[in-house]
Structure formats: structure tokens, C-alpha cells
Write a structure and sequence with these properties.
With 419 residues, the protein is an alpha/beta fold. The chain has 7 helices and 28 strands. 16% of the residues lie in helices and 30% in strands. Helix 1 packs across helix 6 and helix 3 packs parallel to helix 6. Its cofactor is Mg(2+).
């Protein structure tokens, strides 16, 4: 058997980021940025008011107080979005809204609350009384206070969130160069598979794997290029694999990779350069990977996952997510650390397979007291068996049980991989 790390290294070897494309920024959510982006505009892009109030010359109100208010003549009104067309001169003020451009001559803003003018909509007053002094620059946001032109905003390799896109819009971007999203074909093998919703014939089971893998791909911001079920005929499967490779960037199969008499993936790909291994993990020991060649000569990576749904789920997190991150442009370092890891305390015990690393689907619950570790409990009362699919939706983490451990006891501390 080989280690999880060795198998992952083999899976990632030779995989490269997909080509880039330029897209409108509104269509870039979930894509990976291909180039570093520096600010094209300053933020704020002009000196503006941080408060609703009056733009003034600070020296004019230096002696203002409740007992001796300073009276100023109001000469203009500046709503947000308007460009001031006159200057503030000594003895005058201009009403200004939050975010509006500061007029020439003014160097401070008196909040409306420090004047005799009530808050809220009302006619422009002819004069105001100011009850407190303000210093130069008070309640003023200068151009570039937040971000200067040329400042680094988002670096290449970043998966673009709503917040990242908003930041890029604010500094002048309308389109971005991003890596193309991976297109993935999913093939489930087995004569025993029934269509979702059908009543299975004797000896048949519902095909939950294609739904599982397609959903996990969408959650990983990938495109599902094709979903298909194939029987246990090697020739038919190989033709389906070649067809999938013609348009997909990655092909994922489920089932047909262990040592059974009907393990069709091994037979169908014999001589095609696909490597099959026993990985020291549970669930998910039988794994396969390599490059599959389409009839047109195009070669794309292929992952061959086991057939049991929990094995598929765990294998996808450990091997498919990293290669998808690499194809999507996140880089090798990010691909090999795609999941956050932390420590947690078990609340129950369970058996573990000595000699293999157990990756048990668990429910992680945050601690109520600050400083305490979160707790975990297996999502199924029977532990981590590869067939225990009905409770899989409850899992939000994988508990990592070391190879040398054959039993987990209540209140053991384990590493967990957050999902």
C-alpha cells in the first residue's frame, strides 16, 4: 500500500492550470484570478465628506461654542454625486452629504448635529450657527486614504469571492483575466445501477454516486460536462472514456477499481497507462489515476474512485479537490492544502483499521466556552464504513485517525479536515 500523500503527489504530477480567459467582472465569481491586480483608481477617488453636515474653513469655527456660536453664510448645496461649482471662502459654508466631493477652499466638515439645523430633509438654510470647533481634516476622507493607485489588491491564484470582486470594482476594474473553470465528466460503472427515482430491480441499487460527484463538482465551482452510467462491458466503457476525454478537462469514474471479477475500469484501461493502487486509507483504499486519451489524441487526467458512496465522498475531498484546484489555477501549494485543518475532541469511541489512516465523516460542533476545542461525533452510529451513505449529509468534517491507532476512545483529540 502507498500513503495518502504519495498517491496525491502522483495524482498532481503533470497537472497544469487551464488556459485563461477575459470575462466581465460580474461573471467572475468563483473563478481563479490569473494576474495580480493593482489599484487603477484611488479609494476614495476624490476628497469627500465623512458626515452629513457643512463644509467649512476650520479657522472660521476655531472659537465656536454653545455660548458663542459662529454664524456662517450657506452658499451652496452638494449632494453625493455632484461636483462642487463654487469655492468656500472665509465666513461661508456649503451643505454637504456623506460621500460628496469636498469643495475647494474647505478643509473640514461640521456635522449637522453641531449646528442649529435639525437632521433630516429640509430647505437649504441661508445661515447656520456652529456650536463646536473642528480641526483641519476633521470628518474629511482624503483621496487615496483607503487605497492608493498602484496598491496590490488581489493576487493571482485567488479564488474570487463576492468581497474580492467588489474590491476590484472599487479600484477601477470592469473585466478580469481568470483561469477557465475545469470541465469534468463523471462516469459511474456497474450493471447494478438504477436511475434515480426508479424502483431498483432485484440485485440493483440506486445510482447515488453520479449525483454526489456532480454536486461536489458544482460546489467546487466546476462545470459538469457530462454525467453517464456505463455497464460492465470494457469496450463500452473505454469508448465512453474516450468520448468524455474529447471535451472534458478531467474524467472521474466511480466503481470498478478493486480486485473483483467485474472491476471493469481496470480491464477497460489495461495498457492505457492508468495506475491502480491500494492507498493506506479507510474508506477509499482502491484508487486509480492517469491520463486518458481521446480518439482525437487529446489527453486529460483521469481519477478512478471506488464505488461505495462514502469512499467516493472521502476520495473526492482528498484527491479530486486538489487536482481541481490545480487545474483552476490556484497553484500547487494551495492545491495540497485545499482544506482547513484543526484539532477537535471526540465524544464517543469507535474502531479504526490499524495500518491505514481512517478518514471518518463526522459532525463538528463548536465549543460553547472560549478556549475549548470543538467536539466531533461520527455521522453514523456504525462509524465510517464505506456503505453508510444515508447519513453522509450530516458530515462537515473528516476525522483523521492515524495509521497506528486501532481504536478511538471518548475524549481523544484528533485532527479534523473541515469540509
Amino acid at each position: 500500500m502507498i500513503t495518502v500523500e504519495d498517491h496525491l503527489s502522483q495524482v498532481l504530477t503533470g497537472a497544469q492550470a487551464l488556459p485563461t480567459e477575459t470575462r466581465p467582472i460580474a461573471d467572475c465569481h468563483g473563478f481563479v484570478l490569473a494576474t495580480d491586480c493593482a489599484a487603477r483608481l484611488a479609494v476614495p477617488p476624490f476628497t469627500n465628506s465623512a458626515m452629513d453636515g457643512f463644509a467649512v474653513i476650520a479657522d472660521d469655527v476655531a472659537a465656536a461654542s454653545k455660548d458663542t456660536p459662529v454664524q456662517l453664510r450657506v452658499t451652496a448645496d452638494i449632494p453625493a454625486g455632484a461636483a462642487p461649482d463654487s469655492e468656500v471662502v472665509a465666513g461661508t459654508a456649503q451643505r454637504i452629504m456623506t460621500g460628496a466631493m469636498l469643495p475647494a477652499g474647505a478643509n473640514a466638515v461640521v456635522p449637522v448635529e453641531l449646528t442649529n439645523i435639525p437632521a433630516g430633509p429640509h430647505e437649504l438654510p441661508e445661515t447656520i450657527e456652529v456650536y463646536e470647533p473642528v480641526t483641519p481634516g476633521r470628518h474629511v476622507r482624503s483621496i487615496g486614504d483607503d487605497v492608493a493607485v498602484g496598491a496590490e489588491i488581489v493576487t493571482a491564484g485567488t479564488r474570487l469571492s463576492a468581497a474580492a470582486l467588489s474590491s476590484l470594482v472599487s479600484v477601477g476594474y470592469g473585466e478580469l483575466e481568470v483561469y477557465r473553470r475545469p470541465r469534468v465528466a463523471v462516469l459511474a460503472t456497474g450493471e447494478e445501477l438504477a436511475e434515480p427515482g426508479e424502483t431498483p430491480a432485484p440485485g440493483h441499487i440506486p445510482d447515488s454516486n453520479t449525483t454526489l460527484v456532480a454536486g461536489l463538482l458544482r460546489e467546487a465551482d466546476c462545470e459538469v460536462a457530462r454525467v453517464a452510467r456505463t455497464g460492465d462491458t470494457p469496450a463500452d466503457l473505454f469508448a465512453a472514456l474516450q468520448d468524455a476525454a474529447a471535451s472534458a478537462d478531467l474524467v472521474i469514474t466511480t466503481g470498478g477499481v478493486s480486485a473483483g471479477a467485474y472491476d471493469v475500469v481496470k480491464e477497460a484501461t489495461a495498457g492505457a497507462g492508468i495506475t491502480f493502487s491500494k492507498v493506506a486509507m479507510q474508506p477509499g483504499k482502491p484508487q486509480g489515476h492517469g491520463l486518458i486519451e481521446a480518439a482525437n489524441g487529446r489527453r486529460v487526467p483521469m481519477l478512478c474512485l471506488p464505488g461505495n458512496p462514502v469512499s467516493v465522498f472521502v476520495s473526492f475531498q482528498m484527491f479530486a479537490r486538489p487536482i481541481l484546484a490545480l487545474l483552476a489555477g490556484q497553484g500547487l501549494a494551495a492545491a495540497t492544502h485545499i482544506h482547513a485543518r484543526r484539532m477537535a475532541t471526540t465524544t464517543v469511541g469507535w474502531k479504526a483499521p490499524a495500518g491505514r489512516r481512517q478518514l471518518a465523516p463526522v459532525r463538528l460542533t463548536e465549543a460553547e466556552r472560549p478556549g475549548d476545542l470543538p467536539t466531533i461525533i461520527p455521522t453514523h452510529r456504525l462509524g465510517s464504513g464505506s456503505h453508510l451513505v444515508a447519513s453522509l449529509h450530516k458530515a462537515n468534517a473528516l476525522a483523521v485517525v492515524p495509521e497506528e491507532t486501532d481504536e478511538v476512545a471518548p475524549w481523544d483529540v484528533l485532527e479534523v479536515i473541515e469540509l
